[in-house]
TrEMBL record:
The lineage of its organism: Bacteria, Bacillati, Actinomycetota, Actinomycetes, Micrococcales. This is Short-chain dehydrogenase/reductase SDR. InterPro entries: NAD(P)-bd_dom_sf, Sc_DH/Rdtase_CS, SDR_fam. Keywords: Oxidoreductase. Transmembrane segments: none annotated. Belongs to the short-chain dehydrogenases/reductases (SDR) family. SUPFAM superfamilies: NAD(P)-binding Rossmann-fold domains (SSF51735). GO terms for molecular function: oxidoreductase activity, acting on the CH-OH group of donors, NAD or NADP as acceptor.
Length: 259
């Protein structure tokens, strides 16, 4: 498949995890991929991997929470590469603490929510609105659909990403821009594997509530992201799709019986 031939895709936080898997798939399907992350080594490694596999990628390493730097970087990408057809707002993170002593609010809201909005605004103004086309895919979470205990900032931010996705999907339809989101269930990425090591019991309790009885794979999240970014989803906008092995479909009062 080459659904993204002649398109430019910017994927934030694509130095590892879901972002990296997404970048690899976009490249496989013909896109020119801009790899963004805070860490230069991981950006360079992903660019090298894609180019060695015969794809096309370039580095776009900047901190998405620095609004001015990010807007300039977006402008530069459009000057260098002609357009940004797809934006995946993937970079995010959490910091689990009880609400009564939660001290990470600004940082967690900043990276998951505020940067998602301002990156979308910068890319829409620099490329998508003038060309009357574009697709934005945001990363929410199951924490965007129901609360995660001890994760108030992340829960609030990811719920707001669902709202932001609806608002932009509705408002930017007139510019030919579709805006959707995925809500991953727990997926095998460095961030989740670190958490599994730190809190093995909580990890097992979560898996026990997944009908598919396993974590998601980063590639499964990437596949849903590519679908939403592609013309296959040409009449879908403003929506959030859980990619979660059925977890949100399970009655909240039950866990899965052993089978
Ligand atoms: N993995 C999961 O189980 C899971 C579940 C639900 C939602 N998500 C969401 O999916 C997205 C990706 O998750 P992941 O597990 O692959 O995360 P990850 O932590 O493995 O990777 C995120 C990447 O984003 C980068 N990043 C962080 N802040 C940045 C910034 N300010 N500017 C640029 N890059 C930045 C990090 O350096 C890192 O490489 C996140 O938004 C996360 O909240 C993940």
């Amino acid at each position: 498949m080459s659904r993204f031939k002649d398109q430019v895709a910017l994927i934030t936080g694509s130095g590892r995890g879901i972002g990296k898997a997404t970048a690899l798939k976009f490249a496989e399907e013909g896109a020119f991929v801009l790899i963004n992350d805070l860490h230069k080594e991981s950006v360079d490694a992903v660019v090298a991997e894609i180019n060695s596999l015969g794809g096309n990628a370039a580095a776009a390493g900047f901190d998405i929470t620095d609004r001015e730097v990010a807007a300039k970087a977006v402008q530069q990408i459009v000057e260098d590469h002609g357009s940004i057809d797809v934006l995946v707002n993937n970079a995010g993170g959490e910091n689990m603490q009880p609400a009564e002593s939660y001290a990470s609010w600004d940082r967690v809201i900043g990276v998951n929510l505020t940067a998602t909005f301002f990156m979308s605004q910068a890319v829409a103004n620099a490329s998508m609105i003038p060309r009357n086309r574009g697709a934005i895919v945001n990363l929410s979470s199951l924490a965007g659909l129901a609360a995660l205990p001890n994760d108030v900032g992340y829960t609030a931010a990811k719920h707001a990403v669902v709202g932001l996705t609806k608002a932009l999907g509705v408002e930017w339809a007139k510019y030919g821009i579709r805006v959707n989101a995925v809500s991953p269930g727990m997926s095998e990425t460095p961030a989740s594997l670190e958490w599994q090591k730190r809190e093995p019991e909580a990890f097992e309790a979560r898996i026990a509530r997944v009908p598919w009885k396993r974590m998601g794979r980063a590639e499964e999240q990437a596949a849903a992201i590519l679908f939403l970014a592609s013309e296959d989803a040409s009449f879908i906008t403003g929506h959030t799709i859980p990619v979660d092995g059925g977890q949100m479909a399970l009655n909240p009062g039950h866990s899965m019986r052993p089978q």
